[in-house]
Amino acid sequence: MLRFHFTPEDLTKVTVATEPHVLWEIAVSLHRLQTREGRWAYAPWFRTARTSLRRAGLERTVKTLLLPLFPRASYFPDFLTPPEGTQGLDAGLEAVLATPYERVVSEVDVLTRAVGAPAWARRLTERDMRGQLVGALRAYHRAVIAPHEECIQERLHAERARHAHTLFHTGTEGMLTGLGPTIHWRPPVLEIDPYPDHRDVHLDGRGLLLIPSYFCWHAPIALADPGLPPVLLYPLHHLPPTATTPHADSPPLNVLLGSTRAAILRASATGSTTTEAARRAGVTPTTASHHTAVLRDAGLITSHRHANTVLHTLTPLGAALLRTGPGGG
C-alpha cells in the first residue's frame, strides 16, 4: 500500500497536469507491451504499435535498450520521468540528459538490486550513452505515441473537465475521492491499494501533482524517491462509479437512451462484445448490433473488430454520461 499523508496546506496545493507527461506515457506504454493485462482498452494502439516499431527498425532497440530500463516491476529509475516531461518531449529528454552523475549511479544501483539491470546500464552515467537512450526514446515516441496524441489529448481534456466539475461542487477532497477504484481518500491520507510495496510519503506542504495517464492501467504509480516533488500517475481507464451500481441512475438514463441502449452503454464500460452486450440487454445480437451503431454514431462508444468479434468500449463522452447520469452535469 502507498499512502500520501496530507497537511491542510497540501490540500491547497493539489494540482492536475495540464498536458500529457510524454515520458511517463512512454514508460507505461512500454509496460503495456510487457503484459496482456488491460489489452482490450488499447486495442487500436496494439494493432499498429508492433507494425510501426518493425517498420521503423526499432524492435531490437526496444527489446535490448528500453524494456530493461522500464521493467513492469516495482521499480524503474525516477530520472527517466522528470517533471519537465509535462512541458513536452524536448524538455523532458533534455532533463534526462542533464541528470547528475551521482543520481544516475544511485538509481541504476536500485534497479540492479530490484530486478537486475543489464551491465551496460551503468554506462548511463556517460552523456554519450544517455544520448543514445534519448535518441531511442524519441524514435519510439515518434513511432507509437505521436500517432495517437490526438486521442490522448482528448482523454486528458475530458478528465480535466471532470475534475473542474468536481472541484466546483465538492472541492479538493471530492476530487481525491473520485480518482479511481484503487485510490481511497481517508482524511488526511490518500491510500493506493494494491501497490507493489508498502510506503508512506509525508507531503509536508509540498502538495501533490496528479498526472492522468492514457497508458497507465489499473495501478497508479508514484516516484520511488520520497525526496522528489510528489506525483501520482493514475489511469484514465477505470470503471465509472455508476457502472458498479447501475440501478442508481437507471430511470433517467433509460428515458434518455431507452432501456436497451442504456444497458449496452453500461456493458461497454468494461469492454463488451456484441454478443455480451446483447446478453446484458436481453436482446438478440442482431438487435444489439443496431443499437451499438446508434451509440457509436452518437459518440458514446467506439467499436473495434478482432477476428470474428467486435469489442465495444466507452468514449470519454460515454464515460461522462455514465458518471453523472442525465441532468447530473
**Helix proportion range:** 40-55%
Residue windows where pLDDT falls under 50 for at least 5 positions:
238-250
Give the N-terminus to C-terminus distance in angstroms.
33 Å
| pLDDT averaged over residues | 87
Binned strand content: 15-25%
Q: Any idea what the shape is?
A: globular
Strand ordering within the main sheet: 3-4-1-5
- In total, the number of strands is 11
**Rounded Rg:** 21 Å
Biggest sheet character? 4 strands, mixed
Derived structural class: alpha/beta
Question: Given the structure, what is the number of helices?
Answer: 14
Give the H and E element order: EHEHHHHHHHEEEEEEHHHEHHEEH
Q: Short summary of the structure?
A:
The protein is α/β, with parallel strands linked by helices and 329 residues long. The chain has helices spanning 8-11, 22-32, 43-55, 59-69, 89-97, 101-115, 127-145, 149-177, 241-244, 250-257, 259-267, 274-281, 285-297, 316-324; strands at 2-5, 14-16, 183-186, 189-192, 199-202, 208-217, 221-222, 231-237, 272-273, 301-306, 309-314.
